[in-house]
Amino acid sequence: MTVATDIAALIGNTPLVRLKGPSERTGATVLGKCEFMNPGGSVKDRAALYIIQAAEAAGTLQPGGTIVEGTAGNTGIGLAVVGASRGYRTIIVMPETQSQEKKDALRALGAELVLVPATSYANPGHYVHTSRRLAEETPGAVWANQFDNIANRLAHIKTTAPEIWDATAGRVDGFTCAAGTGGTIAGVGLGLKERRADIRIALTDPDGAALYSWFAHGELKAEGSSVSEGIGQSRITANLEGAPIDVAYRVSDADAMPVLHELMARDGLHLGLSSAINVAGAERLARELGAGSTVVTILCDPGSRYLSTLWNREWLLSKGLALPPWFR
Ligand code: PMP
Q1: Which parts of the sequence belong to the Tryptophan synthase beta chain-like PALP domain (predicted)?
Q2: Would the CB of 102 count as within 6 Å of ligand 1?
Q3: Is 230 a pocket residue for ligand 1 (Cβ < 6 Å)?
Q4: Which among 101, 184, 203, 240 is the best mutation to test ligand 1's pocket, defined by most ligand atoms within 8 Å of the CB?
Q5: How many helices (H) and strands (E) does the chain have?
Q6: Which of 44, 154, 188, 270 to mutate for ligand 1's pocket (most ligand atoms within 8 Å of CB)?
Q7: Are strands 141-143 and 174-177 parallel, antiparallel or unpaired?
């Protein structure tokens, strides 16, 4: 047992867990990295810490300063947690369509929450642009800018990738996940390719995102939609630039729901939909790489963040999505 000096020291070093269904069906070893075990409960704690450290190092974030960010929720939670432990104020701008649990969590953590209507990125009222303006108008504030601040992907180059490499003793043949900012896929991809040039990196895109068509056909084009939160990008962010992606898959919500339910029923893993989309992609990658291979993906955040949506009978029925068999 060790004693941590502060919460930041507890971010990362998450375990890998073997996923029964995908491993059995493919004959491969399909592993999930338990990012929901981070102190703020998601993969975004790593980016939040690196963004704060970069602003401190640059001198733009001073003692008692303010961090402003536009986020689907998890980055805001990470910033609020690390911010609190270092004495910073956090202002979070979020689309009002995000889950009530994330809004409640942010308020509970002491973040100041600004809700804006969900609009396209081209609209000046979009949560990202609103957060940038707020940062400019607030004295002593820095804009975290997770989409285009490459301290985000650096966190994954420096921590997530080496952790995966060490935990598998270098026996990892493929990695896949979806992209929100793209920090995870680009950072883990770059970090693993440094160690093994022929490792296969797959992007798993939800419906409604434009990256699948970009990596498959060179055209940014979105089709359909997804109820997943935190993923589904429509542009090449600075974090995504130069991401070493070998292949791209598309996974629909209808395909991801049974995966979400199986992870709970067979593995005891209660998760959000981006994790299930990632695991569906990992099974595909494992099938391509063949029996005996090892594939790693990200288990992004816990199901408790979605008790009023993905894990709520009435909500699922209203969206026409599959119920867990034990809800019927
Ligand atoms: N899953 C969830 C639930 C998220 O909140 C995020 C972050 N937006 C991601 C996946 C994607 O991570 P990244 O921003 O590194 O692409």
Answers
A1: 9-301
A2: no
A3: yes
A4: 184
A5: 12, 10
A6: 44
A7: unpaired
Q: How many angstroms does the Cα of residue 53 sit away from the middle of ligand 1?
A: 20
Nearest-atom number in ligand 1 for the CA of 47 is 15
**What ipTM does the predicted assembly reach?**
0.99
Q: What are residue 200's DSSP bridge partners? A: 174
pLDDT (tens digit per residue) in 17-30 = 999 999 999 999 99
Residue 196: which of 215, 178, 216, 175 has the closest Cα? 175
- Selected catalytic residue, list 44, 102, 103, 193: 44
Cβ neighbours, 10 Å, residue 271? 27
Structural domains in the chain, sorted by start: 7-37+160-319 (3.40.50.1100), 43-143 (3.40.50.1100)
Neighbours of 195 (CB within 10 A): 14
Is the entire prediction scored with pTM above 0.90? yes
Among this protein's residues, is 44 annotated catalytic? yes
Q: Which two tokens stand for residue 115?
A: 């809700």
* DSSP assignment string, 127-140: HHHHHHHHHHHSTT
